[in-house]
Amino acid sequence: LLLCVGILPWALEGRPSFPSASSTRKNQPASPQLPSRHVISGSKDQQYLLVVGSVNADTTIGVDRLPRSGETITARTIIQKNAGGAVAGGKGANQAVAAARMIGHRGSARTMIGSRVQFVGQFGGDSHGAMLEHALVSEGVDVSGCGKHLDVCSGQGYVFLEKDGLVSSIVVPGANAAWPSEIGEALEERVRGAAMVLLQREVPEHINEQVAMIAHKASVPILQDVGGEDRPLNDQILPHLNFLAPNLSELKRLVEDEAILPDPQTRPSLDQVIAAARRLQARGARNVLVTMGSQGSVLVQEGLDGKCIHKPCVPAPQVVDETSAGDCYRAAFCVAMMEGQSPEEAMRLASAAGSLAVSKHGAVPSIPDRASCEELLSHCSIDTNENVVEVLRGGALGDGKEGGDDDDKMKPCPLFASRLNSMKDRLDLWDGSDDVL
């Protein structure tokens, strides 16, 4: 009976019917710590991270610069990892592999990793589909819940890599757009049984909305990566997401307010980033996790008294290809939260993962393992103890400087600092020497 009640509105209207933001937020705790039933322990329990998203065959092309409109240029090279030139990618697949490598270091047997990371996506019926499935399975990711479409090509990504490591991409959705209108009972059960769910926006939005509704009803925490297709985000889904995770450009797109965030080519202040996150919270978002490139990352916790946790950037060993850095950051954050770590500790591991991901070519090939992340953190020259460094006061919905009316003033927002990295969304904002990147 409960199942029928939950699905019937979707069948009739084509999309989930969400409760109001006020009803869902009424009894929410201020801390984003996961409930104990969602914490992965060292026991043989089968709790897992469920990644629902895209999988692509990525071809990386080295260029001196991007072509102008109507122009043809010659590439420097094609970055090949196999005879076909394509490697596994796509935000969903990247995050599933990244999570598996983070969990795998904890001593789990190879056969156990699959039970700790499950990926649900759509494979095409071409040769790329077989390669992509093999790439995920070889990492220990459980793909038994994936669909396969014999008459549709696999998702494909064409990545244009400039000399300084900056990337631009064109994605052909292929099978990633071939999801059914309803997710089905099998995926519903996977959602209910998960320790945490990780979503992105390279699959149809109705899939994310249905998964979010089911996870919310089952009290399964969700992190929504905002990256993917540029489309509006349904405000009604926001209260169902424990974490909303944009980068700077995605944050600006979501807020759409020049008074909050300046032009993307201008470095925003931390005040402005926090004010933009608060604007999203006023629309129903809960905890907003923003990656800011060379400025690090900041977690703005829900509630006017929610603290803001800032992690400055740690330089990457070298900058070669930034394709999967954000995916690594978010996957590592989820794994750490599932392990029972604090948000500060989760951001610490995520920062290291994002930093290492820019030092190799390719999406999946560049993803670091847990040992590499911990090794990087062990060599940080700056004390990683958390310290209160600043208290910001400003308008909760203003630009973070002058503030709004007195009734709208933000409560004190303590910022915690440590020598950590986020991802490399805006390497052009780095103001240190290039050799440390």
Written description of the protein model:
This protein is α/β, with parallel strands linked by helices. The protein has a single domain, classed as UDP-N-acetylmuramoyl-L-alanine:D-glutamate ligase, CATH 3.40.1190. The strands form four sheets. It has an eight-stranded mixed β-sheet, sandwiched between helices. Strands 2, 3, 4, 8 and 9 form a five-stranded mixed β-sheet that branches. The chain is built from twelve helices and 17 strands.
Brief summary:
The chain has helices at residues 2-13, 21-25, 91-104, 110-116, 127-137, 184-193, 205-217, 248-255, 270-282, 325-338, 343-357, 370-378; strands spanning 49-52, 56-62, 77-79, 86-89, 117-120, 122-124, 147-149, 155-161, 167-172, 196-201, 222-228, 243-245, 287-291, 297-300, 308-311, 387-392, 413-417.
Rg computed from alpha carbons, rounded to a whole number of angstroms: 21 Å
Helix fraction by DSSP (H/I, runs of at least 4): 25-40%
Number of helices: 12
Estimate what percentage of residues fall within beta strands: 15-25%
* Weakly predicted, low-confidence segments: 1-30, 39-44, 105-114, 382-437
Shape-level CATH architecture: 3-Layer(aba) Sandwich
Q: Considering the protein shown, what is the CATH homologous superfamily? A: Ribokinase
Number of separate strands: 17
Return the structural class: alpha/beta
- Major sheet: arrangement of strands: 5-1-10-11-12-13-14-15
Largest beta-sheet characterization: 8 strands, mixed
Spell the H/E element sequence. Answer: HHEEEEHHEEHEEEHEHEEHHEEEHHHEE
Gap between N and C termini = 56 Å
CATH fold description = UDP-N-acetylmuramoyl-L-alanine:D-glutamate ligase
The CATH first-level class comes to: Alpha Beta
The rough form would be described as globular
Number of domains: 1
Mean pLDDT across every amino acid position? 78
